[in-house]
């Protein structure tokens, strides 16, 4: 029976070789991204939701004229997951619309947000900017779209008061970008939640100075209590809004004119030859001192003739100022790792266990297998048939040598190929 053993070993080697070739073929087939939605069958449930959403919109320019037929993934502004056909992107921003005093003109999309949008559970990109919603309020269900990563309601002409249930947006733990700019908001509500905002861009847009000051005051308290760092961008802040900040980065013409503590900013501009008069607030002074029209009135070196100090010269001089030199030195000095918490650094070779690494690699291979399941099933069936065929051939060869005239070979072959 040595021949049978050698045949089985050779069959196993053939099996492993074909399996390896199949895996190499699978490796070349990459899963496509969810945004490639061409020739994808649209989920019927999502298609009905979009049509219902369209009913509450006025479309004088025919921007949604492509929203017909069964394949909603090919509609304008719609993006689908290529595998599941579920809608993941809704972008109705019309660049042809004209912005007019916090509201777009009447030739653009207008109407109201239909609550049926809530049923698009897989939505992660929502852009409804430049749509005139007729001063309706932001609906409560927005916070239920838990998978949103991008949300844009700019120039949407919402109601002048931010509704209290806008706080539901803080439940969107995956949200990476939120744009509510250029809406006629006159009152604001403080938003609290599990997400930490590290950068806030022009939070004073559309708000009066009193409301902006209350928001900045709350942010300062949050920074000190939670021990976090926040960068807040303000356009022409009022003096009371400017004072609570610890550090300031002053930008002019795209250049950093000053970066450092607020208490040293007047010292820096005196170092440059300008001085803030007592009648002037610091916030107003730093906004005018780089202007070619206003700079001369702040020149205080009477023994020297006035010369205009350009923004580029301010940007280069801030590095030679003692605050800039200290900042440069701090950046050059390596961080003392002994000051960090012991658990902050990984002491092992890998940050996660071998079991977690195995599960991650296995899930990747499994995803590749599912993407080409037909090929994998075909290869498995092919290898199985060849394995069985080779095994039967070895067994019959051995029987034929033992009993050459018995006819067992023909009987077993006919039984294998013609079981009936």
Automatic annotation (TrEMBL):
Q: Which keywords are on file for this protein?
A: Leucine-rich repeat, Membrane, Repeat, Signal, Transport
Which part of the chain is the ABC transporter family G domain? 236-287
Task: Kindly list the GO molecular function terms attached to this UniProt entry.
Answer: ABC-type transporter activity
What InterPro entries does the annotation carry?
ABCG_dom, LRR_dom_sf, LRR_N_plant-typ, P-loop_NTPase
Leader sequence range is 1-26
Q: Give the Leucine-rich repeat-containing N-terminal plant-type domain ranges.
A: 44-81
According to UniProt, the name of this protein is: Leucine-rich repeat-containing N-terminal plant-type domain-containing protein
Please verify whether the record's keywords include Signal: yes
UniProt keyword Transport, yes or no: yes
